[in-house]
Amino acid sequence: MNQKNMEIINTQIPDLRIIQHRFFKDERGFFMEYYNKKQFEEQGINIDFCQDNLSQSSYGVIRGLHYQLNPHSQAKLVSVIVGNVWDVAVDLRRGSPTFGQWFGIELSDENKTHFLIPQGFAHGFSVLSEIAIFCYKCDQFYDPTLERGIRYDDPALAIDWHITADKAIISGKDRANSILAEAEMNFTF
Known about the structure:
The chain is mainly beta. The chain has helices spanning 37-42, 172-175, and strands spanning 6-10, 17-21, 23-26, 29-32, 51-58, 62-68, 76-82, 84-91, 102-108, 114-117, 121-127, 131-138, 147-149.
């Protein structure tokens, strides 16, 4: 088999994974294989991505925590093309040993790391650079009727977004999200 162009690393939350890419850099720039379905499948990750999304945000923006209910829950493969973000996933799968726990990781154009978030998780990020261009693949199409959210500042989660409160920029929609204890969810482990 050919040399792998990525390493898939498990986190302490089951099914939540970090993807470290090999990239080749010289005086012209760099090259990397951005996604390889075959290598994912060899690691037991059988996700059929159907939609790619791109967002641009400025320093201090916090987006999330977002998810879609079943039957259109979304797995996401997220990365940063420009800038850096603090990316967070919260386990919403009832029966999971890590239900209600979160994991965060810095994603940047320098580290070229991807974060694989399976179905049954809420997702959000904060922008740590002047601007960030954020890319994510989804395995289900967006369905506004199933979209839900959890407040970014839920005290039960106590997420450190690496942004001070006076610099945080949050949409009215995200400020109106439920806290975890009151959120609608239909995921099982």
